[in-house]
Write a structure and sequence with these properties.
Blueprint lengths: L1 E3 H4 L10 H10 L3 E8 L6 E12 L2 E10 L5 E6 L9 E5 L14 E3 L2 E3 L2 E2 L30 H5 L4 E7 L10 H12 L22 E4 L5 E10 L8 H9 L7 H13 L4 E4 L7 E6 L5 E3 L5 E3 L5 E4 L5 E4 L3 E2 L11 E9 L1 H11 L4 H8 L6 H15 L4 E2 L3 E4 L8 E3 L1 H8 L5 H10 L3 E5 L2 E5 L10 H4 L1
Parallel strand pairs: 11-14
Antiparallel strand pairs: 1-10, 2-10, 3-4, 3-6, 4-5, 6-9, 7-8, 12-20, 12-21, 12-22, 13-20, 14-17, 15-16, 17-18, 18-19, 23-25, 24-25
Helix pairs in contact: 5-6, 6-9, 7-8
């Protein structure tokens, strides 16, 4: 799990100190720091350029000649082995004399008789994430980026600390920026708060509604959904793209990016449907029938069994595999104007069985298998997504519809102070134990020398006294 210090500080602004010491504190919390790096440092000589022309290299099939505008009124020729660009694309260009993060110095070179006066850069070459599609595309012909501007300035990138943490299966709460921030804030004895969301009283739509029906209460404990209208598919804000790239995700479009962003930020997996493709706006939840077929978003037809969960439409037709992957039939497209946002709590063992049977792991299913939050964070994530959609263009949203199934038992767990001290080899009184638990969201009441501990909704893994300790 990768986390950015700047992102963590949005939940706990008072976190401060030497990044190495903060990393040691994270490791002491059970979130072992596997790597730490400083990112976003300026790379002198890397600027924004626009592709003016693409021509075949006369003497090399695997190289093309790229003419770029670097803001100096001239056309600069570069030899490039990538072919994922088109005329008008805006890309990062390393000019002659630049030293890239890996130590490569850019010099003028002659390749098969043609001069190359720089280098068209991929994200990995700039230490800005991994990529599988060649040169990093910043924008198209509609971009208002000024050619020749230093890359970090153009993209608003600032220096930051990136930690890669080892998060064990028994820590579902730490599979988010907010979860890591909560623990670190408690360890440093500083406040933790969720950023304030917008008041959407005056931006609610009135026409489009979604209905939700849970037919198998053991599969789905809670399902909330909301229709968001006036969606315009396009690129997400650059700051959001930057964060996704740093955490290892490739930006696609505003709807997909916002979905991924909120999952990373709040640990709440979600799914978006094209509202126009969901018949009658009706969503059902049930177990699959043996032999039932669904084509998933990756274009693969998958045969289901009765152990799998499905989301269905008004015709009882599967439109998604519960907690694993959506169906192709309701996929978001460039023509999408309204979406249904789904945020659900799925029974972790059920999702785990389906993932193993289909060999279909994803960032979302990994969180569902470990146990996502089934409390107020679900609504918070929904509202956060709507806020971000609104940042991409004014949208309207309907009411949040909810359906309930079987949720985890939240009966208090009796915790004995003597058991705490015996297991941990410490000498803590009831007040100290209560304070430690409260700092990470556990509810605590004293009961005849013992403690009645209420486990927060984001700690599905905590079910016994030993788990609490």
């Amino acid at each position: 799990m990768k986390v950015l210090l700047s992102w963590i500080k949005e939940f706990a602004p008072e976190i401060d100190g030497d990044p190495i010491e903060l990393g040691e504190k994270l490791s002491a919390l059970g979130l072992a720091v596997e790597t730490m790096e400083v990112i976003g440092e300026d790379i002198p000589g890397v600027v924004v350029g626009k592709i003016l022309d693409l021509r075949p290299h006369p003497n090399a099939e695997r190289i093309q000649l790229v003419d770029v505008d670097l803001g100096n009124g001239e056309s600069t020729q570069i030899c490039c082995g990538a072919f994922n660009m088109k005329v008008g694309d805006v890309i990062p260009v390393a000019t002659i004399g630049t030293v890239l993060p890996g130590g490569m110095e850019i010099v003028q070179r002659e390749l098969r008789g043609e001069l190359s006066n720089g280098m068209c850069c991929s994200a990995s070459e700039l230490a800005m994430g991994q990529d599988d599609e060649g040169i990093m595309i910043l924008a198209d012909t509609k971009s208002d980026l000024e050619m020749g501007t230093p890359l970090n300035q153009a993209l608003g990138i600032e220096s930051d600390i990136l930690w890669d943490l080892e998060v064990n299966a028994n820590r579902p709460d730490a599979m988010s920026i907010a979860g890591v921030a909560r623990d670190l804030a408690a360890a440093l004895n500083v406040p933790f708060t969720y950023p304030k969301l917008k008041d959407r009283t005056n931006s609610q739509g009135k026409e489009q509604r979604v209905a939700v029906e849970i037919q198998d209460s053991t599969l789905c404990g809670r399902f909330i959904a909301c229709v968001v209208e006036n969606i315009s598919i396009g690129p997400s804000p650059q700051w959001l793209q930057n964060r996704l790239v740093h955490l290892g995700m490739r930006p696609i479009n505003n709807v997909v990016d916002i979905s991924n962003y909120v999952m990373l930020e709040l640990g709440q997996p979600n799914h978006t449907y094209d509202f126009a493709k969901v018949k009658e706006g009706l969503i059902g939840v049930r177990r699959a029938n043996d032999g039932e077929i669904i084509k998933t978003l990756d274009g693969v037809e998958r045969e289901l069994t009765e152990i799998d969960g499905v989301i269905t439409d008004a015709d009882d037709k599967p439109i998604g595999i519960a907690g694993v992957m959506g169906g192709e039939s309701t996929e978001i497209s460039d023509a999408t104007e309204a979406v249904i946002i789904e945020i659900a709590w799925w029974d972790p063992p059920s999702i785990s069985r389906t993932v193993k049977r289909l060999n279909l792991m994803s960032e979302a299913s990994m969180r569902f298998r470990r146990g996502a939050d089934y409390g107020e964070n679900m609504v918070r994530a929904m509202e956060r997504m709507i806020d971000l959609f609104d940042e991409c263009g004014e949208v309207t949203s309907g009411e949040i519809e909810e359906s309930l199934g079987d949720l985890p038992d939240q009966s208090p767990i009796i915790v004995r102070p003597e058991k705490v001290n015996g297991l941990l080899g410490v000498h803590l009184d009831s007040e100290s134990i209560s304070s430690h638990l409260a700092s990470i969201g556990f509810g605590v009441n004293r009961n005849e020398g013992n403690l009645d501990v209420v486990v927060p909704t984001w700690r599905w893994d905590t079910q016994t006294e030993t788990d609490v300790i």
